[in-house]
């Protein structure tokens, strides 16, 4: 079962460049969360900080009693074994077969016999739909297949926390849909806590239980998916509707002068775009139910009074429907106030 990840007051800079400050959030155990944010806002640095590959100057990342920021290297190294990491490019060894790539962490970190390694590797390759391709080299398969090999490799040590950095980059929309389903299916199978960094709006809309966004060195929001999906924050709205008008510019962010200039040229946010909350994906029939769904229902019921009205209404609709976020077939419309 997944473990909770508690991030408290995290601040990271490289030299004089502050990447983000005072980031606080909790990834609930076994739930799937997505972190959004324009390019360069430090999402990858955030993932690396969680796993202790980057050391923030302030704050804590608490995992099973270990602070990944401030503990001794030996303790951080041990805690890292709880993680499965999937990097943007799959990070495969080009001269090793897919089998050997997936077997690598088992040979490196465990003393398992080759027969046991074979069993685990074949099981994981099967899970990501690559049974039969194990003898191929990474150069002989498509980008989408390489991603799935990366995911299989992230799964071999039975991770309790899975971090995926832009798992969709370079994938066509159909393959991205398959990947979304695969992420949900993996969560159903192993109940791991998952954090996915992505720019992909389909993944964002259909996969996570929780969503957050980094912008201008801050965590704009983090919470149940309905909070971000109904948010009227200009940056969230701009991101979710993929519009040019708004605070996000081509290079990181716009200053006020640019916004004024755009307004003078008629590039303004315009009428609000009606957004729809589509249902979250459910596991493929035949797989177990996601255990996180019931836990999440109880959790969000307890926090309803803290949430903005639109998010509350969306959650109440999905709870009335009986299944919570993961199974509700209703597509709730986000009713918008004027002036978004
Ligand atoms: N090791 C490092 N040393 C110095 N600066 C770094 C280092 N790693 C990242 N950065 C800087 O941190 C900032 C955030 O980078 P990061 O890759 O986390 O952004 P991102 O949100 O993941 O972007 P994208 O969506 O484009 O992948 C960038 O300005 C980057 O240049």
From TrEMBL:
Protein name listed in UniProt: ATP-binding cassette domain-containing protein
Species the sequence originates in: Streptomyces atriruber
SUPFAM superfamilies (UniProt xref): P-loop containing nucleoside triphosphate hydrolases (SSF52540)
Gene3D superfamilies tied to this protein: P-loop containing nucleotide triphosphate hydrolases
Domain ABC transporter residue range list: 5-241
Region described as Disordered: spans on this chain: 319-340
InterPro entries, alphabetized: AAA+_ATPase, ABC_transporter-like_ATP-bd, ABC_transporter-like_CS, P-loop_NTPase
GO molecular function, one term: ATP binding
Keyword list, A-Z: ATP-binding, Nucleotide-binding, Transport
Lineage top rank: taxon: Bacteria
């Amino acid at each position: 079962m997944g473990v909770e990840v508690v991030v408290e007051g995290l601040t990271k800079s490289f030299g004089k460049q502050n990447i983000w400050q005072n980031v606080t959030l909790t990834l609930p155990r076994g739930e799937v969360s997505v972190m959004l944010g324009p390019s360069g806002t430090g999402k990858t640095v955030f993932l690396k900080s969680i796993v202790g590959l980057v050391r923030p100057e302030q704050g804590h990342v608490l995992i099973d009693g270990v602070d990944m920021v401030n503990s001794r290297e030996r303790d951080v190294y041990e805690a890292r074994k709880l993680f499965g990491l999937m990097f943007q490019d799959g990070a495969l060894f080009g001269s090793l077969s897919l089998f050997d790539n997936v077997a690598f962490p088992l040979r490196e970190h465990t003393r398992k016999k080759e027969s046991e390694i074979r069993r685990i590797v074949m099981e994981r390759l099967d899970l990501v739909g690559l049974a039969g391709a194990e003898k191929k080299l990474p150069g002989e398969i498509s980008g989408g297949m390489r991603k799935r090999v990366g995911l299989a490799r992230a799964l071999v040590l039975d991770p309790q926390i899975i971090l995926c950095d832009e798992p969709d980059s370079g994938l066509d929309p159909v393959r991205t849909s398959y990947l979304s389903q695969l992420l949900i299916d993996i969560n159903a199978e192993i109940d791991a806590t998952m954090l996915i960094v992505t720019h992909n709006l389909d993944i964002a809309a259909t996969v996570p239980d929780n969503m957050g966004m980094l912008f201008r060195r801050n965590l704009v929001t983090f919470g149940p998916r309905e909070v971000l999906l109904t948010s009227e924050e200009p940056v969230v709205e701009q991101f979710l509707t993929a519009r040019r008008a708004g605070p996000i510019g081509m290079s990181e962010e716009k200053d006020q002068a640019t916004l004024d200039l755009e307004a003078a040229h008629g590039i303004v946010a315009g009428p609000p775009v009606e957004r729809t909350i589509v249902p979250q994906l459910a596991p493929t029939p035949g797989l177990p139910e996601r255990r996180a769904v019931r836990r999440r229902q109880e959790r969000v019921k307890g926090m309803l009074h803290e949430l903005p009205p639109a998010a509350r209404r969306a959650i109440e609709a999905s709870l009335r429907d009986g299944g919570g976020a993961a199974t509700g077939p209703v597509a709730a419309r986000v009713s918008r106030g004027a002036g978004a």
